[in-house]
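User: Need the bound-state model for zinc ion:
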Amino acid sequence: MFPISEKARRSVLDEAERLRLLSSTERDLIRLVHEPGYSRWLEQIKSIGGCSHPIYLAGYTTTRHALTGEILRHYDTSSEPGGRMPVRCRNRRETRCKPCSYLHAGDTFHLVRAGLLGGKGVADNVRHHPRLFVTLTAPSFGPVHGADGRVCRPRRGGGVCEHGRPVGCNQRHEETDPMVGQPLCRDCYDYPGHVLWHASAGKLWNRYCHMLRRHLATAAGITQTALRDHLTVSFAKVAEYQKRGAVHFHAVIRLDGREGPSSPPPLWATVSLLSDAVMSAAERVEVQAPYSLATGERVIKWGEQLDVHPIRSDAFTESAVTDSAVAAYVAKYVSKSVGDSGGIDYRIQDLDSIRLAPVNSHLRALMATCWRLGGLPELVGLHLRAWAHMLGYRGHVLTKSRHYSTTYGELRAVRADYQRGGVLALEDQEAVTESSWRYVGSGHSPAEAEIAYGIAEDLATLRDIRREMISEGWKYAA
Ligand SMILES: [Zn+2]
Ligand SMILES: [Zn+2]
Ligand SMILES: [Zn+2]
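Assistant: Bound-state model below.
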């Protein structure tokens, strides 16, 4: 009818169609960039490294001069976008928040490294103390498929277990083969033994530390009480889930003098003396699991596989087990969780969620065993139901002795002070701080999540470029 208005009509329709086709994320993005505080919000997200699950707080902090009452500093979220400010989620798991897990892994690296080389408030001479890198394992609970490049479980002439399943496996499995870590026969596999071992592993470690001191005392020909007058044993250890769903411990064990890291250990406390004690104590130590008719008597011990390596200084590059390599190795594991080994990293509420959990049948059987045994009154103290998602292990990922090195809290405090430019140095005596904060929300909308992801990626790229420039000798580029 009217060619011009027809064209106009079509363009209006095209625009409507285009908007309709926009994804909800794109619509959210349009909303976000039009909000008045958008550029300030970007700044905030940058300052928390693009954290993928920030906690939003509202409140204020006022710093006054203690005597005059004069306001030295005042920060209030009422002028911030949405009247709130984001802080990092600080999750250590890579699957939850990549930028925060990266930061946490970095802190762990420095924490472990300071215990080996000194620095961060730790005496430099720790590098001359006897130091070992030790791996303690769980025992076998039944044969599982492995991927070490060789034939899995060679067995000529076949043979079957009492359940009619082959007792050997002549395949060569790739690392990514879903069979790897799965038992050859699920009915032969000792599931109660596996979860009871996990539930007692923390206790086994504690008792092991005592046993280690006792064996050191015996080697020195003195009593355990007298040992305290000569030396301290310091450690940092990390738990790692293997493919079969069992935890391994990797530990740095160091001998100090009686005052801790700042004092030298006695001359007789050598690397080989420590090494012998580490091995003999590992062989001897055991824990009795609580008795139950369902599980019988269970004695909890370390597995036969035990690795002990002296830690070399970074200067000796021909050794793979150096200060920095060990620190990096431990740091890598703190950002991992049972989720990275095919498990789940959230708590289980009921048996149904075990049935529906996106895990392989072996891990499901371990969780179900936790649930079943956790319901028995005599095993209630092991808290197996609450820790079913961790397959019964309820320890921290990283633990360390009091004297090992610095703490996460101190590393964070130093970083926060550095970010403030160290301006609050005078506050201790002359200023008083009053503050009030409350939680007002957490997380990102779909568009916010994408932008935060982009920021985190940019920061990571920048970090890589800087690292490269530094290693190329551009020392002043950073
Ligand atoms: Zn985060
Ligand atoms: Zn196999
Ligand atoms: Zn069987």
